Amino acid sequence: MRDDEFAAYVEQRRPQLFRAAWLLCADPHRAEDVVQAALTRLYVAWPRVRRADSVDAYVRRAVVNAHLDEGRRPWRRETAAGERLPDVPVPAATSALEERDALWTALRALPPGQRRVVVLRHWWGLSVEETAADLGISPGTVKSQTSAALAALRTALSDEPTDELTREVP
């Protein structure tokens, strides 16, 4: 019964877990490691986890913790993160593909803290309070990190020149 429930949960949620981990890591191979580490911990704790109020919240926290643990490993500091995107179906419109590629590039350019907040707030759809609880930071930090991240994404994805010296002050 335990294995069947766990397998069903993983089968349903693994693609979303991988995508979230990839957004946190910006490296598909490292994201696989993060998801695998989180699922290993989840399997061990599954009897307790399945009784929790929100299994998804527990799993999100496990993915974030696994990501943080992976970043602390000394051998991770010696290698650069890959630039390859995970394999995704090719959309029909070329412009949509270019927009998606630009978005992934802009997300990878964000500092890790801002990327974590954006992933939890906008990919997972969590509230400020849920994001703060999952990351172990204050709601104010979530708000400021979100604001800074969205401003950076707007700038990176803007078609307008970003030269501050040429802009007129109203």
What's the overall average pLDDT, rounded?
79
Q: Give the distance, in angstroms, between the N- and C-terminal Cα atoms.
A: 66 Å
N to C succession of SSEs: HHHHHHHH
Number of strands: 0
CATH topology of the largest domain: Rna Polymerase Sigma Factor, Chain: A
**What structural class should be given to the helix and strand makeup?**
mainly alpha
Shape: globular
Radius of gyration: 18 Å
Give unreliable regions as ranges. Answer: 164-170
CATH top-level class of the largest domain: Mainly Alpha
CATH architecture of the largest domain: Orthogonal Bundle
> What's the story with the biggest beta sheet?
none
Strand content: under 5%
Amount of helix: over 70%
**Overall tally of structural domains:** 2
Q: Figure out the total of helices.
A: 8
Observed structural traits:
single chain, 170 residues, mainly alpha, Rna Polymerase Sigma Factor, Chain: A, Arc Repressor Mutant, subunit A, 2 domains, 0% strand, SigE family RNA polymerase sigma factor
Give a written overview of the molecule.
- It is a single chain.
- With 170 residues, this protein is an all-alpha fold.
- It folds into two domains: 1-84, Rna Polymerase Sigma Factor, Chain: A (Orthogonal Bundle); 92-159, Winged helix-like DNA-binding domain superfamily/Winged helix DNA-binding domain (Arc Repressor Mutant, subunit A, Orthogonal Bundle), CATH 1.10.10.10.
- Helix content is 73%, strand content 0%.
- Helix 6 crosses helix 8 (139-157).
- The radius of gyration is 18 Å and the shape is globular.
- The relative contact order is 0.11.
